[in-house]
Each structure stands twice: as structure tokens, then as C-alpha cells.
Specification:
Blueprint lengths: L1 E3 L1 H9 L4 H6 L5 H9 L5 H11 L8 E3 L8
Antiparallel strand pairs: 1-2
Length: 73
Amino acid sequence: MSMKYYKLFDLLTRKGMKKTDLLTNKIISSPTLAKLSKGETVTTEVLSNICEALNCQPGDIMEYMPNHTGSTE
């Protein structure tokens, strides 16, 4: 399973914000921003904080991308 957060970064751009604005506004921490940038796991609390700050829904900031490991036939 893999979550992609490109929607978050697109939303920030549309709102005239940068990734670092999430840090300066104390929405998330620097290690969390690194995790988001790498598509790593973050807590639902982090996602909630982002959604509250940006007035959006989780689907507005992330997308599930299934891992395709091939067939086991």
C-alpha cells in the first residue's frame, strides 16, 4: 500500500502557499514534512491538522496507490 501526497502540494500551490508554510504555521513538524514528501506513513492526527488548517478533506490531500507486485499464479 502506498499513499501519495501530491494533491497536498498541488493544493498548497493553488492557495499560494509553500511546503515550508506548514512548518512556520506550526501545522506539522519538519520530520513529518519529510515523510509526506517521501510518501511515507503519517498519523491521522497529522492529516486532521492539515485538513483543519487548509479547510479541506483527506481526499483533497492524498491518494491511495496500490502496490502491484505481480501475479502469483
